[in-house]
Amino acid sequence: MKFGVLFSGGKDSVLALHMVAERGEHQVVCLITVVSKNKESFMFHTPNVDITGLQAQALGLPLISVGTEGCKELELVDLEGAILRAKVLYGIEGVVTGAVESVYQLSRIERVCEKLCLKCFSPLWRYDPRGLWGELFGRGFKVVVSGVFAYPLDVLWLGKVVDRVMFGRLLELSERYGVSVVGEGGEIETTVLDAPLFGQRVEVEDFELKWDGVSGVYVIKKASLRSK
Description:
Blueprint: E1 2-6, H1 11-21, E2 27-36, H2 52-59, E3 63-68, H3 75-90, E4 94-96, H4 103-115, E5 119-121, H5 129-139, E6 142-148, H6 164-177, E7 188-194, E8 201-211, E9 216-226
Parallel strand pairs: 1-2, 1-4, 2-3, 4-5
Antiparallel strand pairs: 6-7, 6-9, 8-9
Helix pairs in contact: 3-4
């Protein structure tokens, strides 16, 4: 079956892509990215979504990228248009999502897929958080924190590579404050700089930290692909 992957460039969408591609019986033929102007979009990851073009090159896959104003519910029209384009251009028969816990997101994606007569596949749905990060560590993913939006996460997290030590700290905060370690509540956002299926790694050449005292983002201003 040919799949298009809803692709934000964050850990969940990249891991979901790998899990489908490695199964063998399915083929990932394109990536689908929705770039929201609304930084508080209910549906779409926003930090550093503009580097999905580089990630697509590293994966050797075509990227369908569309913009949206990010108005609640109306942004689904733009999502539907992007998925339909993938169906027409690349003959996709299904859509892969990186949804882990958000019923809001998954139910709406499933509705769009049903309308377009496409299968919706979410390999990470209800995945154990420790197991999810274990997959990332075990496969050698390089994941950086690109946004923090909940106390007690602070500016010191921004741009940091999440390794097993950092994950241990995140687990402690989860136990004390209820922070989701996968970030499905929007507490934390990530960007993948390298993964097993990347033919090249993403090298950050310039960045900016934006912090308002409560939340912030690690903005990748310039990046390029380098040999692994």
